[in-house]
Automatic annotation (TrEMBL):
Transmembrane residue ranges: 12-35
Pathway: Protein modification; protein glycosylation
Location(s), subcellular: Golgi apparatus membrane
Cofactors: Mn(2+)
Protein name: Alpha-1,6-mannosyl-glycoprotein 2-beta-N-acetylglucosaminyltransferase
One GO CC term, this protein: Golgi stack
Residues involved in substrate binding: Q118, V119, H120, T121, R122, D149, Q224, T225, K226, H227, H228
Enzyme class: transferase
Length: 456
């Protein structure tokens, strides 16, 4: 009999284990990881009735897809058409540093929470992120900065239609979209990814002497996300006119994230807890992958632990003090042979002379979710965004009674052995010296005056 009991206990553990794994995969971010899609704009009208039912009617406008007028000449779309037009529009926008709705919500203060959102082409998800942000308490006291690596009028129109807080758009100027046949895109003379070293040297292709640590040559699409992340952070902390005296937190989100309505409230609680009990906690993290469904236990629990790239990269925040520290060690980020920005940051964290690794203080009940993956059994092609969004909506609806805790309690952990392991080598994809140079060059651009443009 004991043997039987043992077997059933094991079975229960295996089932719980598998369930946890499933939950993690369902909600796991791969921000630094896989390149998701091509340059196709994802803008489907697949929001289900079920999802719509839980969105307040006044926010439906952010989900409405305006189908292109088929009868009109499709080449006659308003806005830039060719690359030189797009480059010019990008420069004009970046120079202007326009803050939309500043007249309604007041200027950026030194302690304004800045929410930086990295946007590629997944407009369907972005619509839902905006809907979630619109419902967050105190969102009107923040500034949203949308950072784009793909210029598109539909995306721009959506972002500029936001009316619930201050909004700025910044445009990554070295994108593949605007450099399709030259670095940072793919140059005609670039070495093929799988070329052998001798073969590449004989071909005399670009940087034949610099494959990555796996012996592969650069692939533009894999490097763009890290470049964009780095450019965005530099742009926000070092270049914008409105952040000269800024000392508040900058929260990092991506287009396929979804926030809980009390995420700003939680950010304040995390900051207060850090000030009181963990002054060395540099990073605040609103998302986590653990115990996702146990809000009644975890909504007021926070954890203090060493920061780890793949676990604490979703909805995390830091301020200028921390940024300055990162800047001092920028070489650890730019010269590290890893195309993931988060692993590059982990490498930097592990190599701070005379300092500990970054510490993070995080919400045990997550306030940021990842809606951009559809789980293991779905191919991207038949992946239904509504299904995942509906799950998160339902989860947050059920968690409502546990939101806005008046205080939080912290536990301190050391993190697992696996996560404390010192990185010995990167994941590769960042061997080309042009990528390392571009990354370094981005840190050399100084504060830029705002130029005012007058439309005729
Ligand atoms: C997605 O799933 C919802 C129900 O979960 C369904 O109503 C909707 O039609 C589906 N959309 C697509 C494009 O499959
Ligand atoms: C697209 O969404 C709009 C607004 O929600 C709706 O009126 C329209 O019927 C939808 N079209 C399709 C093809 O689902
Ligand atoms: C579509 O375009 C045609 C020609 O420009 C115009 O007459 C028509 O009103 C447009 N329809 C809609 C729904 O915008
Ligand atoms: C669309 O516009 C282009 C260039 O302006 C023109 O050559 C073409 O004939 C137009 N097509 C239609 C269907 O109007
Ligand atoms: C791009 O389009 C504009 C008109 O929109 C035109 O004046 C310009 O010559 C075009 N540039 C190139 C390189 O095709
Ligand atoms: C913001 O910070 C700057 C630089 O530290 C300082 O000069 C300015 O007075 C501050 N503004 C406010 C409103 O505190
Ligand atoms: C910025 O973060 C550092 C490190 O976590 C912290 O010590 C400092 O108090 C923060 N500054 C502000 C103005 O919150
Ligand atoms: C970086 O800047 C240097 C000096 O301005 C320049 O020569 C080099 O081409 C730049 N590299 C890249 C990849 O932009």
């Amino acid at each position: 009999m004991p043997r039987l009991k043992y077997a059933s206990v094991v079975r229960v553990f295996v089932i719980i284990g598998l369930f946890c794994l499933w939950v993690q995969i369902m909600l796991s971010a791969s921000s630094g990881g896989i390149y998701r899609d091509g340059e196709e704009l994802m803008n489907a009208n697949e929001t289900s009735e079920q999802v719509l039912a839980l969105v307040p009617p006044e926010l439906h406008k952010y989900l409405t897809v305006h189908h292109k007028n088929v009868s009109a000449n499709s080449t006659e779309r308003s806005g830039p058409k060719n690359i030189s037009d797009i480059l010019r529009a990008i420069q004009r926008n970046n120079d202007a540093q326009t803050i939309y709705n500043e007249d309604i919500f007041g200027p950026v203060q030194n302690d304004t929470i800045i929410i930086a959102i990295q946007v590629h082409t997944r407009l369907t998800y972005l619509r839902h992120l905006i809907v979630s942000l619109a419902q967050a308490r105190d969102i009107d006291k923040t500034m949203l900065i949308f950072s784009h690596d793909y210029y598109d009028e539909e995306i721009n129109n959506l972002v500029r239609s936001i009316d619930f807080t201050k909004v700025m758009q910044i445009f990554y100027p070295y994108s593949i979209q605007t450099h399709p046949h030259e670095f940072p895109g793919t140059d005609l003379n670039d070495c093929p990814r799988d070329a052998k070293f001798d073969q590449a040297v004989k071909l005399q292709c670009n940087n034949a002497l610099h494959p990555d640590l796996h012996g592969h040559y650069r692939e533009a699409k894999y490097t763009q996300t890290k470049h964009h992340w780095w450019w965005k952070a530099n742009r926000i902390f070092n270049q914008l006119q409105c952040t000269i005296g800024h000392t508040g937190p900058v929260v990092f989100l991506e287009e396929d994230h979804y926030v809980a309505e009390d995420f700003i409230h939680m950010l304040y609680l995390l900051r207060n807890m850090a000030d009181k009990s963990c002054p060395q906690c540099e990073i605040l993290s609103l998302g986590t992958y653990l115990k996702t469904y146990q809000y009644h236990h975890n909504s007021d629990k926070v954890e203090i632990t060493p920061w780890h790239s793949s676990m604490h990269n979703m909805g995390f925040a830091f301020n200028r003090t921390v940024w300055n520290n990162i800047m001092e060690l920028q070489d650890q980020f730019c010269a590290y042979d890893d195309y993931n920005w988060d692993y590059s940051l982990l490498h930097l964290s592990q190599n701070r002379p005379g300092r500990e690794k970054f510490k993070v203080i995080l919400c045990k009940g997550p306030r940021v979710f990842h809606i951009g993956e559809c789980g293991i059994h779905h191919k991207k092609s038949n992946c239904n965004a509504s299904t995942v969004i509906s799950k998160v909506q339902q989860l947050l609806k059920n968690a409502k009674p546990y939101m806005y805790p008046s205080r939080v309690t912290a536990i301190v952990t050391t993190g697992g052995a696996k996560h404390n392991k010192k990185l010995t080598k990167g994941n590769g994809g960042w061997g080309d010296i042009r990528d390392q140079d571009l990354c370094t060059n981005m840190t050399k651009i100084g504060r830029q005056q705002r130029t005012y443009i007058y439309y005729a």
